[in-house]
Amino acid sequence: MANISSDMNAFRELVKSCKNLVVLTGAGVSAESGVPTFRGAGGFWRKWNAQELATLEAFNENRSLVWEFYHYRREVMVSKAPNPAHIAIAECEKRFKAEGRKLTVITQNIDGLHKLAGSERILELHGNLFKTRCLKCGDIAVNRDSPICEALRNAGEPDPGTPSAAIPDKDLPRCKISSCGGLLRPHVVWFGESLEMAVLDAVEKELADCDLCMLVGTSSVVYPAAGFAPELARRGVPVGEFNMETTPATGSLGYHFQGPAGVNVPKVLEP
Ligand code: BV8
Ligand code: ZN
Fold first, then answer.
1. How many angstroms is it from 187 CA to the middle of ligand 2?
2. Which atom of ligand 1 is nearest to the CA of 32?
3. Which residues sit opposite 36 in a β-bridge?
4. Angstrom distance (rounded) from CA 256 to CA 269
């Protein structure tokens, strides 16, 4: 069982000697960038918890409302930048690459901040806010349009009293392939939906190669992501948890560093 603030120097030594570092991240790694986490106060939009809207059922029941929610989260990102945790991870990846070593980010986040910080080896378990998928032809496209469609221009206000925009399907985001024009959805994994097989296969490969793991800013509640670090620990891979608090995973991990990711992650990764 880890004590609350493990020995950072010991972990730094492990970083120095490892060959394949896997950094598993959740919403907490983006908290200091000002991106609301799910389980903190920011986990609410109007009168819903993010979890209630991140489902296919919610989308089928009220496509306009779910698109307002995702439009709001896209627009929030316009003013958000990577923080020292994202940057230290990206810098370390570059140094490892020069030494023939690997650092791979496996993130639950859909905010795109790891890529913006310069990370290249990224597996996005749950998709990306700036990708759409066409319900008709299946096309997956990067879309950074702000707003994503005219009807959403001033929509998405988070205030609980805000009335729903009730946008008709025809004015919601549509497929840019002219012969298609199908309705688009966010290319994210909703609760109850399975993760993409290709992503899960890539994750399995990285976990098999991994000889050191950092678990950064996740409440370790959502599966299958929450199972990865404990699985590594069971295999004897050292895992360091970087969080403001302990989580259901803490007990099974060797190290726990209490404090902001933006402070502690650079401390263990900086040369
Ligand atoms: C699946 C994308 C099966 C969308 C997300 C009943 C019905 C249906 C499914 C289930 C069910 N019961 C269980 C399940 C499985 C379900 C699940 O695990 N539910 C949980 C709630 C129990 N999982 C799924 O549905 C997954 N799919 O199982 O499919 C299947 C198989 C075959 C065929 C069909 C189906 C899909 C889950 C993916 C859902 N999509 N995101 C979107 O974002 O809108 S999940 C979303 O929530 C995130 O991606 C992330 O995964 C999760 C939030 O967790 P965190 O990232 O950890 O964030 P959180 O706010 O919780 O915690 C922040 C942490 O940071 C805290 O610990 C905090 O202390 C810390 N922190 C804060 N500030 C800082 C900090 N740390 C450091 N520094 C700081 N500054
Ligand atoms: Zn299409």
1. 13
2. 80
3. none
4. 15
Buried b (16+ CB within 10 A) or exposed e, 87-114: bbbbbbbeebeeeebbbbbbbbbbbbbb
Q: From its phi and psi, is residue 236 left (phi > 0), alpha (psi between -120 and 50) or beta?
A: left
Q: What percent of the chain has pLDDT over 70?
A: 98
Q: Whose CA is nearest to atom 56 of ligand 1?
A: 26
- Which residues are marked as active site? 126
By DSSP bridging, strand 239-243 and strand 255-258 are parallel
108 CA → ligand 1 middle, Å: 7
Q: Is 121 in the pocket of ligand 1 (CB under 6 A)?
A: no
Mind listing the pLDDT tens digit for each residue in 51-83? 999 999 999 999 999 999 999 999 999 999 999
The model's pTM: 0.96
Residue 53 C-beta-side C-alpha neighbours within 13 Å: 23
pLDDT in tens, 201-221: 999 999 999 999 999 999 999
Please give the Cα distance from 152 to 90 (Å, whole number): 34
**Closest ligand 1 atom to Cα of 25:** 56
Compute the mean pLDDT over every residue in the chain, rounded to the nearest whole number: 96
Q: Is the CB of 107 under 6 A from ligand 1?
A: no
